Amino acid sequence: MSAQRPNVIPFRGGDREPAPETRAAEPVHRHHPASARTTAERTPPPPDTAPEPARTRAAAPEPEQSMYAHEAAAPVDERTGPPSRTGPRAVPAEQDPTSASPAAGRAAPFDDWAGHAFDDAERDAVYRAIRERRDVRVGFRSDPVPDDVLTRVLEAAHQAPSVGHVQPWDFLVIDSPDLRARVRDLAQAERDDHTRSLPSIRARAFSGLKVEAILDSPLNIAVTVDPTRGGRHGQGRHAQPASAAYAAALAVENLWLAARAEGLGVGWVGFVDERDVADVLELPSHLDVVAYLCVGYVEEFPTEPELSLAGWAKGRPLSWAVHRDRYGHRGLPGQEPTSLLEETITAIGGLNPRAVEEARDRQNRMTKPPGSLGVLEEVSVQLAGLAGECPPPIPEPAAVAVFAGDHGVHAQGVTAWPQEVTAQMVQNFLEGGAVVNAFAEQVGAEVTVVDVGVVGDLPRAAGLLPRKVARGTADFTQGPAMTRAQALQALEGGIEVARDLVSAGNRCLITGDMGIANTTPAATLVCALTGADPARATGRGTGVDDDMHEHKVEVVRQALAANPVDRSDPIGVLAALGGLEHAALAGFVLGGAALRVPVLLDGVIAGAAALVASAISPESMSACFAGHRSSEPGHTIALEHLGLRPLVDLEMRLGEGSGALLALPLLQGSARALRNVATFDDAGVSTVH
Predict the structure, then answer these.
(1) Secondary structure of residue 371 in the 3-state scheme
(2) Cα 4 from chain centroid?
(3) 458-505, pLDDT tens digit by residue?
(4) What is the documented function of this protein (predicted)?
(5) Most CB within 10 Å of its CB: which of 91, 501, 642, 648?
């Protein structure tokens, strides 16, 4: 291999013309505490001074990845105060060009990858800064940030990558108490508005969170972006018009990591409208605010993200985010790629026998006659076994996911309602005007609507997850309702929704559905998976008359005849006879079970989906609780087949998640009783002789 490689820009430390030594005047910044450091302390060492040995620490071992592991690495010693020396760090002298080192006079050999790597101490320091970066909201100290420290942090931010090297960012350092107070007022108003939009349980938890430190930190920094910088011919801009904003976000990350290395905390103020902030700061109209940051030294860095410590949200394991060749084909480097469904099934397990035994023992020792709480005692035992601990956590906050889709069998006249009602009801859910919204507000649950197969286009809206697999299913009296690929996509879409809701801090998942004509495929699935006769399993759905009901039963028979299925292949059964919302709900059940979170089932649509989930993974039923019994006859058949006992039986048949929401307080009450009721020994109450 030749000593020189033409047309290669030399790396730092390689052969290059030495730049003439220059030295800018030391900037004076009002944050610099003159009394704390002398001029000599701020002066960099002369060029012949040996660099100060770096203070390093071996990186803590990373926790093993698992479906449930959200714990951060073990805490490390923090540098929480101003550094002992504030001058620019000493830089090792340039390599002697005549040295025999491979880095002298040429770039590292192509096959010598280690020649480009940092040494262990440097690499550990980089990864430590990444691992211990935190969004800090509390504990800022009043110590000012020295000028040279702030300059180094801003220089690091300015080194961020950008398409076309246009560097579209600017950094506005904000000292003015008046400006900061005005931004704080904006944040407080936005916080109050957000609090009013939250379910009651979430609102109470949110009231205890500090979400900004605008006045507490010694300085604020607004990071802006100029989308026009570089002109119309900036490299890459024609293909990636949003690249400027992405680059500015990378500058924010660089700033954050450099600040952590300097012992500075950074807090991102999320509760402000960037347009309002731009007005307060009197920014030119062509600039947008990307981030408003609070910066300063802190008393300590949290061992985990503050929202995680508060139970508001959980981190997502790396294994959820790494895909190989195609989205959904997951696998960490060195591991065999697998599908999300396979990964989820592998993670599902049964109840923890130790926790089950402890819960039963505690029920027998609580200050009440044994068995006096009836079904709720077994519910609490199941919750303990699912959580693996006694007492189990209270299943709150809770989220109901309403999966929406349309059905080709609607063309067979199985309902009097027009198909466009599906999309209209989705809009009603999003506007808060449906029964599911009223019941969710009553019990403090969050409502999320998921479009997995609505025929029409739905505008983007808060609370709507666009996960459309197809514009409805095919008419299954003429052939399969879905392809196998569509069924799998919808299944995995449901798993993803379960994961997202649990990562957002929810401790209970509730099934909901919307789809005109969806009770027809539900009844067909019940027949296919239990062997029930269509006349026994098919109900009146939205209230059809006798003639239409008789026709509906015949349509179910036609679908079964047109699609001979093998019960041992539940995904094949689902694809042939189900709906997109049935498939997504089955995945939702599997996803909750894999995360060991209770899943509260609604009516016949959820019951049919649970039959599919149970056929795929029987142990998934350990996470399931029947919220109510629908008046649809197929639901009773499904519950009996699954061995689930409904908590509520009010002759409801609405769907949406309405019946399960009414049962949520019973589920929560059973766990709270197991947790809070005293035992005979604790209370000093005598037992029967």
Answers:
(1) coil
(2) 49
(3) 999 999 999 999 999 999 999 999 999 999 999 999 999 999 999 999
(4) Catalyzes the synthesis of alpha-ribazole-5'-phosphate from nicotinate mononucleotide (NAMN) and 5,6-dimethylbenzimidazole (DMB).
(5) 501
pTM given for the model: 0.77
Q: Which tokens is 324 given?
A: 């190989």
Distance in angstroms (rounded) separating the CA atoms of residues 465 and 451: 6
Write out the two tokens for 299. Answer: 């008393």
Active site residue 155: no
Task: DSSP for 423-465, please give it.
Answer: HHHHHHHHTT-SHHHHHHHHHT-EEEEEEEE-SS-----TTEE
* Candidate list 343, 492, 496, 656, residue with the active-site label: 656
Q: What are the residue boundaries of the structural domains of the chain, listed by start?
A: 120-313, 315-347, 396-675
Q: Does domain 396-675 have CATH number 3.40.50.10210?
A: yes
What letter would DSSP give residue 135?
B
Instruction: Give CA torsion, residues 619, 513, 508, 449, to 10 deg.
Output: 130
**Residue carrying the six token digits 């972006």:** 225
Beta strands 624-626 and 628-630, pairing class: unpaired
Backbone angles phi, psi at 83, to 5 degrees: -65, 160
* Higher per-residue confidence, 379 vs 62: 379
Structural fold of domain 120-313: NADH Oxidase (3.40.109)
At 289 the three-state DSSP class reads: strand
**Distance between CA atoms of residues 536 and 532, nearest Å:** 7
